[in-house]
């Protein structure tokens, strides 16, 4: 009988994460490979550059960012390259090929890049282009690099904006789901800590809340990126309003994240005797948030989550000790933030105690409005 060695759980987790990375990144890697090959062919056959090494490199570098930011990355790469080459050519025209010329050209190119954009890729490309142009000492080298950059960035723009544009709503939903997953797990651990008096659950709850903050930062970047995609990719011009609205709705998760973090801190600091009674509403809130995490854009899921949030608000009376009343107030606040995220009108969310559950109106399914036409 073959004996299979036991792998530590950490090793299994790392192996699983590696498989996930390969599966997720396989398609972007194939796109970058195709873009690099096409850039090489264009530079050699159309431009006539015998050694167009920078054209495929530029294509890969431009596409080597998260979907939603590839078009901007291509423009920034081209900007940095142009700045570096122009500065280096002027430096060579004034001086000669020596250490001081290289230092002055590099410093000037990087400074201009900081003034123009300030992103790392612009600064790095400006410095690299200036250094290469001065080091080679030939005007032709700078021009050839600029042409390569134009080809590589152009191919990257075609791939990112026309052939394989990012799907803005899908990017948003993925980022929203990551935030909601961490918040739901954090609330679940908070509820367990309240019910079972287990400090290990306290640590897990706070760890998840901190992780949720990181996911919220990523969501902010995704929101900005999807707005750029909607305005710059021709395939999404007809749905800019829907995409912008979806980004604004996703911004409600900032409020929910703050409420959940405050809830975890206050609930875990509540009086020991009051904790068991606080567990059920926190657990219900955790279930509601986890349900949203599985399908954040589905209208039916949002409607069910909205009704659960109303029930949570109504079950959190403010009677009892000051500690209990304070925590339940924060629970109600978090449940109200869930309502706002699901698309319930602000006035209806503020008046949930007096309104009947059946009158809640949740916004149309943005995913269906977005994907009803156009590429998937």
TrEMBL record:
Keywords: Membrane, Transmembrane, Transmembrane helix. GO terms for cellular component: membrane. It is a multi-pass membrane protein. It is found in: Membrane. Its main location: membrane. The chain crosses the membrane at residues 38-63, 75-94, 100-116, 143-164. Residues 38-159 form the Integral membrane bound transporter domain. InterPro entries: Memb_transporter_dom (IPR049453). Pfam families: FUSC_2. This is Fusaric acid resistance family protein. It comes from Thermomonospora umbrina. The lineage of its organism: Bacteria, Bacillati, Actinomycetota, Actinomycetes, Streptosporangiales.
